[in-house]
Amino acid sequence: MSLDWQYATHRDVTVLTLTGHLGGETTGRFTGAISWVQARTTGPVLLDVTGLVSWSDEGEAAVLDAARRLGSAEQPLALCGIGDLPTPALTAGQLVPLRIHPDLDTALDALASQG
What is the value of pTM for the model shown? Predict the structure, then answer.
């Protein structure tokens, strides 16, 4: 399975939308997308995973790593649209700067109010 991503700005929030599968060999593509976005924006980044069919443990770890990278640069990462994706690492209470929202509109409301 492959991973595709799209970049857009909604209400001054950078939204990185993922579709497909995140894991294994696609984590490199995801890491590249995060680096691309990080180089082009200074505000909050919203990772919309509504279009993901699945993610593996490696994919989830890549999201946590992205949250650490962006959070350390004063550029928070938020996540929306998890749905039925398994999230053992996200729900383990790790100290990672990552806000989780149920959907895109809720996330945009929360992040746009920060600006």
Answer: 0.88
